[in-house]
Structure formats: structure tokens, C-alpha cells
Amino acid sequence: MMYAIVDIETTGGYASGNGITEISIQIHDGLTVVETWDSLINPEQYIPSHIESLTGISNELVADAPVFNSVSADIYALLHNKVFVAHNVNFDYSFIRHHLALSGFTLNTKKLCTVRLSRKLFPGYASYSLGKLCGSLQIPLENRHRAGGDAAATAILFTKLLEADTAGIIGQSLAKASREQALPPNLSKSYIDRLPSNPGIYYFKDQKGKVIYVGKAKNLRKRVCSHFTGNNVSRQRQEFLKNIHTVDYEICGTELMALIHEATEIKRLWPENNRALKKFEQKYALFLFEDQKGYLRLGIDKFKKQGNTLYTFNNIAEGHNLLRILIRENQLCEKLCFIQHGRSACTHHATQQCNGACIGNEHSDLYNARVEQAIGQLKDMLPSFAIIDQGRTDDEQSCLWVEAGKFYGMGYISGYTDLQHMEDIKSTLQPYPSSDYILNIILSYTDKYPEKKRDINFQAITQ
């Protein structure tokens, strides 16, 4: 078997936005290096000063070097029928593959990562960076942070790995069924091996144990592995993968529960790589407050975390439609509900649909009684139900609880629970914060699976 040991220098950390400034390829026959190819590359873009300080490769140095496209055929010929080997292989491979593709070549080879192999075959070192690992193994490393020097040291390291591999670990890594080389360099395969195929949520954590991403899954193992496939070479993804050191998980009874738990955990932990759910906020709400004259007032306004919020809405039109129903059926004043504005009486006062609270002709006690009546009507209008579904095991069921249009919480109950007495179940559930996002996905679920919905007698529970 032939191996191509590769090291590159670049203008930045991700392939889609950066160029290659130097390449070294060492062809290894399993015993020793049999061929070497090195070249500076003109990246056709500016080399940042901090990169120049690290590598010593300046814009002047590469000014007369070949551009990648002019040597791409030579590079492809050296790589396409070999095993691609590098220290943190996915970085080098992503750059080479991306730039070969721009030149019309499709690279699709097996990969080996000397970081991952070193962790297995030479365990116990404090660091597996190339420089420190070479120091620990007494491998000469000359011309550090230049492609030729780093590739030569990696070739010596790879020879030592081959010699130390008495258990056939390298062969196992190259097996077609093995996805290990696709894993981030700092994530042990043992974390993947212990993942179940159940629904649930998973946490990617960095070296210090900080959660950097929370996700939900119908199948935990399959979903986690999907993060490490594909050819996305963006800076965001490269940084994300590099920072994954561990994976934790929590099994849920259903994908719906996983979705809700994910949303809650993102709000609690605020991981840096979760972006979509961070943007979701409740936009409008129905508020209740008492004004200086003692009148209870209902109104629609932008959602605020502080305040007496009765219900939330995705848009203001939805809120005004509901408020107008409450006004009409309880003979409330549109002016006191902020539907109409002005100093004079509301337009409904002339038609006796308003009793004159807007101009002080109706005492606040009488008006407030009808506001309280409207609030009671609102509670009756809003849905109260539970969803009974499969649990984590055959001996339990899952239960999600919605009360008066708000998500209360969820949990697990015995598979033998008497569902005729739903009010006894609520106390066993874990409360969760409610939001429009969570309520909307629950309502969509009940539309799709109405047979799993159990109506709740809200009056019986609250009395």
C-alpha cells in the first residue's frame, strides 16, 4: 500500500476563503519515503502578516511561484491512488480537495490522521501537536511551520506508527466500514461507539468541557456522525470541528420531546454554534394592567419578559383578532384596549356597544368585572391537552402537558397509568419554560397525530 504524506501552508484556516502557499508531498511505501515533491504556491491573494510571521512565507517569496492550477495535475497524479496522510488530516485534505476541484480534478481517497493514530498507539502524552509530539518521540523537526519540514517529520512519525501497530489499528481505520478518519481530530471514537440509536439530544463540548453545540436527533448515533460528513470547507465548520473534544447525550422518548428539550437547552446554555433557535423570540403578547383611574386594560404590544402576559402571538394581526373577539363578546371598550385612539369617546359608545368607560361614564368595578370575565373566556378558548406517546422503554409512556395555551412541561409515566384521571399525572412531570416556538411545534404534532392527544378538564385541575 502506498501513502501520500502531505503538509501545506495556507493564508488562513478554511479552504473556501483561503489559498495554499506551500505544499510538500512525501510518498511512503510502508517502510520509508520513496519520493518527495515540494513547491511554493502563489495563492493569488494577500498573505496576512501574522501568517507570514508564523511561516516565514511572504508575498514577495511567492510572487514568482506557480499558481495552484498550473501544478494541479502533478498534485492529483501523486495523490489520487494513495492513502492521504497528514497531521490533522481533515484540514490538509479539505484544502487540497477544494483547490483540486476548482482545477477540474475530483480527489476521493482514503485518509489517515497521525493525530488520531498517535493518540491510540502512543497514549499518555500531554499534547499531540506535531511540535510537542516530535519532541516527546525524539523526532527531528527542522524548518517548523514550513511544509517540507513538517511533512518530513510527519513521515518519520508515520513510520514509527506503522512499526508500533501490532494490533492492526491502521488497517482497521482504513476499513471501508470505518468512519474514524472523518471524525474531528480531537474526538475519540469511543464517544461515537457509545451513542445509542434512540431519539434524544446531544452536546458537543470543547477541551474545557464547555458546551459549544446542542442538537436533537431521531437517531442519536446517525445524527452525530452526520456532522462529520460532507465537503463543507467554510471557516465556521472547520473551527467548529476542531473544537469538538467530547460528546454527551440524553435519551428522549420521542423526537418531539428531543426537539423541545433542544430548544430549552439552547436558551439555557446559549452555545456559540447554535444560531437558528437563538433568533426565535416571541414577538407580541396580550398584556393586562391597571391604569391610574383603576380600569383594567387589555392590550397587544411587543413581547416583554417582564409584565403580566396573558398570551403570546407570532404577529400583531393574530393578537388583534383575538382581542377583538374578547371585546365584542364581553362588551369591552376598544379605546381602553388600545384598538382606538383619541381623547373623545370610542365609536362604539354611540351604538351602546361600549358603556362609556372610555369617558368615565361606567365605574371601573363594573368594567373590570367584564375584563375578568374576558380573561376567563380566554382561558376557556385556549387549548388544554396532553400528548401520550412512547417512552424511553417499553414499560413507560411519555407525556407532554399543555394548559390554557401554554406548554407546562413533560416527563415519563408508567405504561400502566390510568389515563382516565389525567389530573393525577401533572404533578409527575418536569416543568419547562413555554414559548411560541415550542407551542407551535406541539400543535403541529397534534394535527399530524390527533390520536395521541388527550383533552384535559382545565376547570377540574385548577379547582
Automatic annotation (TrEMBL):
DNA polymerase III is a complex, multichain enzyme responsible for most of the replicative synthesis in bacteria. The epsilon subunit contain the editing function and is a proofreading 3'-5' exonuclease. Residues 197-275 form the GIY-YIG domain. It comes from Pedobacter duraquae. GO terms for biological process: DNA replication; nucleotide-excision repair. One of its GO terms (cellular component) is excinuclease repair complex. One of its GO terms (molecular function) is DNA-directed DNA polymerase activity. InterPro entries: DnaQ (IPR006054), GIY-YIG_endonuc (IPR000305), GIY-YIG_endonuc_sf (IPR035901), GIY-YIG_UvrC_Cho (IPR047296), Ribonucl_H (IPR013520), RNaseH-like_sf (IPR012337), RNaseH_sf (IPR036397), UvrABC_protein_C (IPR050066). SMART domains: EXOIII (SM00479), GIYc (SM00465). DNA polymerase III contains a core (composed of alpha, epsilon and theta chains) that associates with a tau subunit. This core dimerizes to form the POLIII' complex. PolIII' associates with the gamma complex (composed of gamma, delta, delta', psi and chi chains) and with the beta chain to form the complete DNA polymerase III complex. It comes from the Bacteria. It holds the Pfam family RNase_T. PANTHER family: UVRABC SYSTEM PROTEIN C, UVRC/OXIDOREDUCTASE. This is DNA polymerase-3 subunit epsilon.
